[in-house]
Amino acid sequence: MSDQKRLFLVDAYALIFRGYYAFIKNPRINSKGEDTSAIMGFMNSLLDVIKRERPDHLAVCFDKGGSADRVEMFEDYKANRDETPEGIKTAVPYIYEILKAMHIPIMVKEGYEADDVIGTLSRQAEKEGYKTYMVTPDKDFAQLVTENIFMYRPVFGGGYETWGIPEVQKKFEVESPMQVIDFLGMMGDSSDNIPGLPGVGEKTAKKFIAQFGSMEGLLANTDQLKGKMKEKVEANGELGLLSKKLATIMLDVPVKFDAKDFELDHPDIEKVKEIFQNLEFRRLTDNFLKTFATEASEIPQTKETLANKTENRLTPKETKSAGSGQFSLFGADPSNESDTETSSVLERKTAETTSHFYQSIASGMATKLFLKNLMNQKSVCFDTETTGLNPLTAQLVGIAFSWETGKGFYLPFPEDKDKGQELIEQLRPFFESETIEKIGQNLKYDIKVLAKYNVEVKGKLFDTMLAHYLINPDMRHNMDVLAETYLNYTPISIETLIGKKGKNQLSMRDVPLDKQTEYAVEDADITLQLKEHFQNELGEANTQKLFDDIEIPLLRVLANMELEGINLDKNFLNGLSEQLNKDIEALERKIYAEAGEEFNIASPKQLGIILFEKMKLVDKPKKTKSGQYSTAEDVLSYLAKDHEIIQNILDFRGLSKLKSTYVDALPTQVDETTNHVHTDYMQTVAATGRLSSNNPNLQNIPIRTERGRQVRKAFIPRNENYILLAADYSQIELRIIAALSKEETMISAFQNGEDIHASTASKVFNVPIEAVTREQRSNAKTVNFGIIYGVSAFGLSNQTNLSRAESKELIDTYYATYPKLRSYMSEQVDFARDHGYVQTVLGRRRYLKDINSRNAVVRGAAERNAVNAPIQGSAADIIKIAMINIFNKLQEGNYKTKMLLQVHDELVFDVYKPELDTIKTLVKTQMENAYILDVPLDVELGIGNNWLEAH
Question: What is the reported pTM?
Answer without folding.
Answer: 0.67
